Amino acid sequence: MAKRRKGRDVTGVLLLDKPAGATSNQALQQVKRLFGARKAGHTGSLDPLATGLLPLCFGEATKVSGFLLDADKHYVVTCKLGVATATGDAEGEVCEEAAVPALESVAVERVLADFRGVIEQLPPMYSALKHRGQRLYQLARQGIEVEREPRQVTIHSLELQALRSDELDLMVSCSKGTYIRTLAEDVARALGTVGHVTALRRHGMGPYHDPQMWSMEALEACAEQGREALDATLLPMDSALEQYPAVELAEDLAFFLLQGQPVFVPKAPRSGWLRLYSRHGHFMGMGQILEDGRVGPKRLLAQRRHQ
Q1: Burial letters 126-165, b for 16+ CB under 10 A, else e
Q2: What is the pTM (predicted TM-score) of this model?
Q3: Would 5 be classed as within a structural domain?
Q4: Which residue of 66, 118, 164, 195 is most buried, as measured by CB atoms within 10 A?
C-alpha cells in the first residue's frame, strides 16, 4: 500500500515574489513547509539570481501548473556590457572582456528590432536541459561542453528602458523556453561587445500581469497569525487559466464528462482548451475540443467527481 504523504490538503495558487539567491525549488520547499501542505509544485524555474513572480500551485492546482509553464513571460533585465561570464549572469566567472562602444538610444533600438519576433537561440550550457540523462549545468560544472541544437522562441516585445555607459535595462515579453541570459548576451554581441545579466525580475506570466506578490517575509508574518491568514494569500486555481474560454455544463453533460466521456456542448468554441464549470459555477477542470467537435475531459479535479 502506498505511503500517505504528510501535510494538509491545501488547494490554490500563490504568487510568490521569489528572493534573489534562492533556487525555485528551495523557495517552493520553504513555502510548502510554511503552509504544511501535502502537495505543491512551481511553474518553471527562475534562475537563483532572479527575483519576482514564481506562481506556486498547491494540491489540485498542480493539475493546471503546466498551463502556466507554457504561458508567455514578462521580465525586466539589466545587462552589463563589456564583460562576459561562463554562466551568462553575475554568478559566473569572467570569461571574456571587450571594449564597449559609445552607444546612443537610436543605435540600440535598431539592434533590438532584429531580436523581436521569432528568433533562434542556442540554449546555454548552464541550463536545466538534459543531455543523455544529465543536466547541462552538471556537465558545464565539470568543464564539459556538448553540442546543442538552436531553438525557436518568440520575443513579443523588447524595449529599452534605460541606457548607461556600460549597462542596458530592457523590458522583455517572450514565449516559453526563452533564455533571457542568452538574449542579453546576443544583444551585447550585436552591439559590438559582450555582456551578462546582473539583475533579472519577472513581473508577469500568463494571465498575471504585475500582480500582487507575496514575499517570504510577508508569508512568515501571515503564518504567525495562523493558517487562516496564510490560506487567504491563495488565489483560486482557475485564476491561472483566464486566457482560456469558459463553458458552463448542464447537469447531465457534467455527469458524463466526469465519467471520462466526451460531450457535445452547445455554443462551445470550435478548437482549443476550455475551462469547465458546473451549472453551480464550480470549476471542474480543463477540457479540449476534439476533432468531431465534442469536449473531451483532460484535466479534471478529483473533488468535483462526486459533486
Answers
A1: bbebeeeeeebeebbeeeeeeeeeeeebebeebeeeebee
A2: 0.89
A3: no
A4: 195
pLDDT tens digits, one per residue of 142-186: 777 777 888 999 999 999 999 999 999 999 999 999 999 999 999
**Cα(25)–Cα(234) distance, rounded to whole angstroms?**
19
Residue 217 to residues 12, 18, 23, 137, 232: CA-CA distances in angstroms?
A: 20, 11, 17, 30, 16
210 included as an active-site residue: no
The owner of cell 524555474 is 45
Within-domain flag for 95 = yes
Mean pLDDT by 10 residues, the chain (307 residues): 72 96 94 95 88 96 91 97 94 94 95 97 77 73 79 97 96 95 96 97 95 97 94 96 94 92 90 93 94 92 53
Rounded distance between C-alpha atoms, residue 303 and residue 161, angstroms = 46
With respect to residue 129, please indicate whether it lies within any of the assigned structural domains.
yes
Q: Exactly one of 47, 89, 186, 238 is catalytic; name it.
A: 47
Domain span including residue 45: 12-70+208-239
| 3 state SS of 34 | helix
| 3-state secondary structure string across 68-118 | HHCCCEEEEEEEEECEEECCCECCCCEEEECCCCCCCHHHHHHHHHCCCEE
